[in-house]
Write a structure and sequence with these properties.
It is an enzyme of class 2 (transferase). InterPro entries: ADP-glucose_phosphorylase, GalP_UDPtransf1, GalP_Utransf_C, GalP_Utransf_N, HIT-like_sf. It comes from Muiribacterium halophilum. The strands form three sheets. A ten-stranded antiparallel beta sheet has the order 3-4-7-9-8-13-14-12-11-10, with helices on both faces. 25% of the residues lie in helices and 25% in strands. It is built from six helices and 15 strands. By secondary structure, it is of the alpha+beta class. It has two domains: 137 residues, HIT-like (HIT family, subunit A, 2-Layer Sandwich), CATH 3.30.428; 150 residues, HIT-like (HIT family, subunit A), CATH 3.30.428.10.
Length: 326
């Protein structure tokens, strides 16, 4: 029987099936491929292809993560911000930062196969870079994201993530922030803290948890087997994460990605880190988190036209399958 569900954070609607969900083997997808490293700009032997390295962190005698300028940036740092109107339209110069985060030393080792220790260093580097960008008064927001596999948007097969820092707050972030603030004013509680509490109590959509983090299939996901990773302790900013939690996040992030690849070998995916904008306005009402989106289905006319998403495997069944994968 179909069921219509409402996302509790931004009010998005989805349609899922509670008793006729399809099994993993019924999905078809294009597997991610690792191409030759001969001309890969991210490999150590081709280090001369990278002009401007911003940050590097090492592990076990070799680099574990490198932050470098994007060769084809969406936004450029050395542009003065100029806002102006064109009739009813608003526009501004393309000031911002666009960096590549090379998160695996080895060309043939995808992100989900690096060690928890290496993943911890990648996370630590992201937190450090977030804190550095926060000092730039022209920037308001930074988004960390990963595209794994060509169908998820990756143009190079050597594992890498990206960050884009913008002088405006992105629309999706605004939607989350606006509702979170409204919810807090009405209930004097964080909506994400309430999600953590209810999911912990019900357990049916939990994939894994440790002392600091919880991974769940959200109640109203956009994609089958989607995952949210949330801090158990309230924290509005990714850049404010405590050092003691880096390892816990690395473990639970790797855990989900490992389970996903067991169920769907070679499956492309995206993940994004949603955090508050720079400043303290949303300290009490917002809660940073990671959203991971497997590329099992394609967005088509109904989704584009309505904002609905159709989920062919219920969140509860997906969580159960992922729990039982290990």
């Amino acid at each position: 029987m179909p069921e219509i569900r409402k996302d509790p954070v931004i009010g998005r609607w989805i349609i899922t099936s509670t008793d006729d969900s399809i099994d993993p083997k019924e999905y078809s997808y294009d597997k991610a491929e690792i191409k030759s490293s001969e001309k890969c700009p991210f490999c150590g032997k081709n280090s001369d292809m990278i002009e401007n390295e911003i940050l590097r962190r090492n592990y076990d005698g070799k680099w574990a993560v490198r932050f470098v300028e994007n060769k084809f940036p969406a936004l450029i740092e050395n542009i003065k911000i100029d806002r102006y109107a064109d009739g009813i339209y608003d526009k501004m110069t393309g000031h911002g930062m666009h960096e590549v985060i090379i998160d695996s030393h080895d060309h043939n080792t995808p992100f989900h196969e690096i060690t928890p220790e290496e993943m911890e260093i990648v996370i630590a580097g992201m937190v450090e870079r977030h804190r550095m960008l926060k000092k730039d008064r022209d920037l308001r927001y930074v988004l960390f994201f990963k595209n794994y596999g060509a169908s998820a948007g990756a143009s190079l097969s050597h594992s890498h993530s990206q960050l884009i820092a913008t002088p405006v707050v992105p629309k999706i972030a605004v939607e989350e922030l606006t509702f979170s603030e409204k919810y807090y004013k009405y209930k004097e509680r964080c909506i994400f803290c309430d999600i953590v509490d209810q999911e912990t109590e019900e357990e049916i959509r939990i994939i894994k948890q440790n002392d600091s983090f919880l991974s769940i299939v959200p109640f109203a996901p956009r994609f089958p087997f989607e995952c949210w990773i949330l801090p158990k302790e309230h924290n509005f900013s990714f850049g404010d994460m405590k050092k003691k939690d880096f390892r816990s996040l690395a473990i639970i992030l790797k855990d989900y990605l490992k389970r996903l690849q067991i169920v769907f070998p070679g499956l492309p995916y995206n993940f994004v880190i949603h955090t508050a904008p720079f400043g303290n306005r949303y300290r009490d009402c917002y809660h940073w988190h990671i959203e991971l989106m497997p590329r099992l289905t394609k967005i088509a006319g109904f989704e584009w036209g309505s904002g609905f998403y159709i989920i062919q495997t219920s969140p509860e069944k997906a969580a159960k399958i992922l729990r039982e994968a290990l």
